[in-house]
Amino acid sequence: MSAPMRLFRASRPVVNAAQTARFSVAARTMKDGDTGAPRASADAFTKREAASESMYVHEKEKEKAEALRAKIQKGEAQLKQDKADMDALQQKK
């Protein structure tokens, strides 16, 4: 490749095929919530999948709530112990 040709290629902006849509008239617009996928009909499989997903989310939320309850109980037990230690120190004075 000759030097002028290399210089010409280096000075050109890099453009890919997606940027040079030759036959597009207008930009494709989507409404809020559109993902581009066709809407699935409400058959038994989609209903079952939605129910399964809801059950999974419910179970995870239930596990998180149980973990928070345990953490609160542990904190309350620690607080009770700290209060007892404070009372013991105050009685010694």
UniProtKB/TrEMBL annotation:
Subcellular location: Mitochondrion
Coiled coil, from the record: 58-92
InterPro entries with a match to the protein in the record: ATPase_inhibitor_mt
Record has Magnesium as a keyword: no
Entry keywords, A to Z: Coiled coil, Mitochondrion
Protein purpose: Inhibits the enzyme activity of ATPase.
Family listed: Belongs to the ATPase inhibitor family.
Protein name, UniProt field: ATPase inhibitor, mitochondrial
